[in-house]
Amino acid sequence: MGGQVPIVSLLAVRDARKSFGALVALEGVSIELREGELIGLVGPNGAGKTTLVRAIAGRVRLDAGAVELLNRPVEPGSPRPELGVVPQEIALYASLTARENLEAFGRLHGLAARALAARVDWALEWTGLAARDREPVRRFSGGMRRRLNIACGVLHEPRVLLLDEPTVGVDPQSRERIYEMLAALRRAGTSLLLTTHQLDEAESLCDRIVVIDHGRVIASGRLAELIAGTIGEGRRVLLSVDRPVAEPIDGLEPEDGSGTTLGAHVKDVASELPALLRHAAAAGLEVRDVAVRSPSLHAVFIHLTGRELRE
Fold first, then answer.
1. How many CB atoms lie within 10 A of CB 48?
2. Are 283 and 262 in contact (CB under 8 A)?
3. In which region does residue 130 sit, left (phi positive, over 0), alpha (psi from -120 to 50) or beta (all else)?
4. How far from 51 is each of 47, 48, 164, 217, CA to CA, in Å?
5. For residues 194 and 205, is the Cβ–Cβ distance under 8 A?
6. Residue 240 and residue 287: Cα distance in Å, rounded?
7. For the segment 78-113, what is each residue's pLDDT rounded down to a tens digit?
8. What is the DSSP string of 78-126?
9. 282-307 tens-digit pLDDT
10. Which of the residues 17, 41, 212, 257 has the least number of beta carbons within 10 Å of its own beta carbon?
């Protein structure tokens, strides 16, 4: 039968592999972005996130594997008009105004004059920069530059948008504005792949989360699925005590290097907390504070990738 082939996914990466000399950046990564989704890509420094984004954008040539957009394979160096890219580095002309930057990037995206004018006006309103459109970008705050950076990547109305750390270094107000901008893009039908170190950001914004480490996908799914598959759905109880403790005490274990915080994983806080308090008292400890933490992406992330500092 004739007709269009249905789009199963807007973006698919199949078994992506990339090495830089002896350094293996990607070791068989496969991900899929469905229509209307926002996927969060998280991982420690050096995990392979930026290499993956650059490979999807065509800026890194894979050693093996494939990238598909709208069910079509894309070849290295081929145009990808359905794709928008917002790099981690600010990619703006500091001496040009906000309007001039948008006009320049719109032309690079191939927009005709009439469409370009309308899209520039839209972008200035969308970013909240309409009142500052004639000022050179060098006078802008970091948050303003970040918002303009995003706008320059979506002027051509891409079906898929890659965002590499779009909120890094911005103030809370600009961060919230960027979240509003991303929500507006989704309502307009854009699917998003977002890399971030802000785990609360991924937890609150994303439909699915992909955890990547050492060039491999080590977990993926909705937050509830990740929690169920790793740390479980119980709570973490933390007791702050009056002196350092080096060894576990009846179900309590040192939570950090200071030794003054003890932790325990519990299923029922009301029934299990009194026993923990009794165990601490029996060990001669004074409990100065009690905290109960719900399962979180942060806990899942540490469980999967460890506490070792990555530079």
1. 24
2. no
3. alpha
4. 9, 5, 10, 13
5. yes
6. 6
7. 889 999 999 989 999 999 999 999 999 999 999 999
8. ---TTEEEE-SS----TTSBHHHHHHHHHHHTT--HHHHHHHHHHHHHH
9. 999 999 999 998 899 998 999 899 87
10. 257
pLDDT of residue 310: 63
Rounded-to-integer distance, Cα 144 and Cα 2, Å: 48
Contact 89, 146 (CB under 8 A): no
pTM of structure: 0.85
Region of residue 275 (left: phi > 0; alpha: psi -120 to 50; beta: else): alpha
Which tokens belong to 106? 């719109």
Walk across the sheet containing 72-73 and list its strands: 23-33, 11-20, 64-69, 72-73
- Whether 75 has a pLDDT exceeding 90, the answer reads no
DSSP states of 245-290: --S-BTTBEE-STTS-EEEEEES-HHHHHHHHHHHHHHTTPPEEEE
Tokens describing residue 311: 């530079």
What's the Cα-to-Cα distance from 247 to each of 138, 251, 253, 283, rounded to whole Å? 55, 11, 7, 11
Alpha-carbon distance of 117 to 58, in angstroms, equals: 28
Cα separations in angstroms, 80 against 5, 68, 74, 76: 19, 10, 8, 10
Is residue 27 a contact partner of residue 216, using CB atoms and an 8 Å limit?
Answer: yes
Structure tokens given for 57: 């954008």
pLDDT at 145: 96
Residue 213 pLDDT level (bands cut at 50, 70, 90): very high
List pLDDT tens digits, range 2-30.
Answer: 555 555 689 999 999 999 999 999 999 99
